[in-house]
Amino acid sequence: MAVAAGPSSPPLRLPLHLQERLASGLELRRRGYRSRFAPSPTGPLHRGNLRTALIGWLEARLRRGAWLLRIDDLDGPRNRPGAEVSILEDLRWLGLHWDGPVVRQSAHRGVYATVLSALRQAGRLYPCRCSRRLLADVSAPHGALAVYPGHCRNGPPLWGPQTGRLPSWRLCLEPGVLGWQERCGPDGHQDGHAEVGDVVLRRADGVVAYHLATAVDELLMGISEVVRGEDLWPSTGAQVAVMAALGADPPSYAHVPLWRDGQGERLSKREGAEGLAGLRRRGLDPPGVIGELAASLDLVPPGSRLSAQDLVEGLSLEGLQGCLSRGEGVKA
Predict the structure, then answer these.
(1) Looking at the domain assignment, is residue 248 inside a domain?
(2) Does 9 reside within a domain?
(3) Is residue 191 marked as binding?
(4) Triad 112, 118, 122: Cα angle to 5°
(5) What is the pTM of this model?
(6) Do residues 192 and 177 touch, judged by C-beta distance below 8 A?
(7) Which residues, other chains included, contact 311 with Cβ-Cβ below 8 Å and sequence gap of 6+?
(8) Binding residue per annotation — 128?
(9) Residue 36's closest CA among 53, 11, 19, 12?
(10) Is 35 one of the annotated binding-site residues?
(11) Is 130 known as a binding-site position?
(12) In this structure, is the dihedral angle defined by the CA atoms of residues 69, 75, 78 and 80, taken in order, positive or negative?
């Protein structure tokens, strides 16, 4: 695994209270299976989100582990009023009950700031003033930047505003392979320089970037396996790099197949894919929705009606993993 630090970088020094929180999270990971569902409150859950939630819930229950709920609400302008309430209500309506309190990333801003400060003091970040226009060709999921060409890597360490604009903060990666244990998606490795690049950890507008917040929270929450859609596989190397910079190994990952429409296109909020409201208009109740989600994975015959609890009681871990290992999202 590559380490996100140069040979002359001083050691990373985190405050004792944060070291203890990270150590506590890693101890939780060692004690047993812990996964999470982490939607953003940017709109209602669509069928693809709901199916991923069901997969994660089933896996956790079959492993007698914990299934946690985190709301990734850092990007305030994109959050929609009432979206979080809708997400919680949809999960409860389907019987997908989570363990413990809801975790909100907005409550961890102080932790992220402390991590950023420590990384900066250790010389592992550098300021970047590249414009959006310059980097428009390399946009990636969640607003991150893919394979940054390194324009500012060796520039002067000027952190203050210039021409009224602050820089973004990038993590300086050393050459090498970033690796993780992958169960469903492509092999778990990415080349740090060729496939990941120096990722942004703090945006120029001061907002903590997706990769930093996600990596830190996986550690704090003691997540042993991240179950999420295969579209997020390209983001993994950047998050593994952040964990490596903090001296921690990553959890394992299961990037599960996406649900696709009749033309083979993935369902997404952006395209207004049908959520629970549409399924209810079609007359489906919770057993009908669970049946439709499960049938899309070949776990039950089409037209089945059953609760989430009925489904888990009639399913084996091997049966679930066998369906996921086939690796193709079922078309609507």
Answers:
(1) yes
(2) no
(3) no
(4) 145
(5) 0.90
(6) yes
(7) 58, 290, 294, 299, 300
(8) yes
(9) 53
(10) no
(11) yes
(12) positive
